[in-house]
Amino acid sequence: AINVRVQVMEPTTFVKTTDITGELVHKDDSKYLYSDVTGEVTAILVQRGDTMEVGDVIAYVDPSTPGAVYKERAVTATTGGVVQSVDTYKGHWVTADSTPLFTIADPSNLMLAIKLPERYISMVTEGVSATFTTVAWPDEPFSAEVTYISPSVDSVSRTVEIELGIESDARLKSGMFVSVKLLTGVFEQVLVVEKDAISSYLGEKSVFVIDEGKARRTLITTGSESDSQAIVTSGLEVGDHVVIAGSVVDGSTVHIL
Questions:
Q1: Beta bridge partner(s), residue 164
Q2: SS3 assignment, position 86
């Protein structure tokens, strides 16, 4: 007899996830910093990605007019955060409280942005959960939840922009690329088989079912799949013992380990 391991068919819940890549980005709640005087920018002291606190000197502006005494005025940060963009340059003429010099974002206020292929749109709604991992912490999943789905499909990429809310975590940084597992289906009371147990026979899918101590080839059809499992839509019944390990052929005498 050939030693085999089996999987007993029992109704279960099957969770379908879709793997996709995404990027951590700042939420669109950025603030602008201005000079409180009109004049020419003479120095810029910060660059994109720098962190600033309230009161930090971030630039200098010369408000003097021709013939007047030259005197630079310091531009200080009125809010803290990360410099998302530098919107000025040396020699730039700026108007007091009108011309944006810098765009600042809250470093803790991140979201996950993904571009979902069009074929998955019907499977995703607001509130759907997901997990994601980063290159820096590949073995630690972080949680996310869909908060926004774009009403339009990109005509070139055939994708839909989706935003997911995430919990604040100091390890997560804007610009990180992440691997996302998005929940795209939950199936209740279904039979699920290990994909390793499935083989091809005359162009159809089949498994070996134990019947009175022998392995019997049984044709099946399958539905939704994950990396390792598939829903069985026909061919198997509750209580069937399916061979998942052991080299057998149709009619082999087996011993279940």
A1: 112, 146
A2: strand
Q: What are phi and psi of 139, to 5 degrees?
A: -100, 5
Yes or no: say if 134 and 192 are a contact pair by the CB < 8 Å rule: no
Q: How far apart are CA 51 and CA 26, in angstroms?
A: 14
pTM confidence score: 0.59
- Give residue 217's pLDDT band: very low, low, confident or very high (50, 70, 90): very high
* Distance, C-alpha 123 to centroid of its chain: 16
Domain spanning 16-27+109-186: which superfamily? Efflux pump adaptor protein, beta barrel domain (2.40.30.170)
Report the mean per-residue pLDDT for the chain: 91
pLDDT at 27: 79
Domain ranges for the chain, please list them: 2-14+188-256, 16-27+109-186, 31-105
> CB of 105 within 8 A of CB of 174?
yes
Tokens of 85: 């963009």
The Cα-based distances of 36 to 4, 68, 97, 150, 209 in angstroms read: 79, 19, 6, 38, 80
Please count the residues of the chain. 257
What three-state secondary structure class fits 118?
helix
63: tokens are: 């408000």
The string of pLDDT tens digits covering residues 105-157 is 887 788 999 999 998 888 899 999 999 999 999 999 999 999 999 999 999 99
The dihedral sign for the CA sequence 103, 107, 109, 112? positive
From the list 164, 222, 225, the residue with the least C-alpha distance to 22 is 164
Which fold would CATH assign to domain 2-14+188-256?
2.40.420
